[in-house]
Amino acid sequence: MSYELSFSEEFFTGEPDGEIGGDDLCNLYPATLTPQCVMQALVSTEKYRPGQFRTMVHEVLGKSLEKGQAADETVFWDLLEKIKEYSTCDTLTPPIRVYASKDHYVTVYEDKEEECA
Questions:
Q1: What one-character-per-residue DSSP string does the chain give?
Q2: 54-96 pLDDT, tens per residue?
């Protein structure tokens, strides 16, 4: 079963208003095996599954990345926009597969940090 995306901007960018500072995306979103937002999941996919990432970029955006070539920031933002347009996920509870197309997705995991009272 699939669901329409109905999450806050924080789910996509890690920031409540979606505004990101001028720092490098890879510094703002360090690659991890358990990304906490969609943008971090995209950065992590490029690092840990580069072949899958290049295929997603090619098939979703129509752009080509050579093996070993790092994507520029516009590729990540364009993929994020395609994910929002496609607006499909597999579940509403983490881990959540968020789709950029019927064949391409990234997975977002639950934030493990607990807030202090």
A1: --EE----HHHHHSSTT----SS-HHHHS---SS-SSHHHHHHHHHHH-HHHHHHHIIIII-----TTPPPPHHHHHHHHHHHHHH-EES-SSSSEEEESSSS-EEEE----PPPP-
A2: 999 999 999 999 888 889 999 999 999 999 999 999 988 899 9
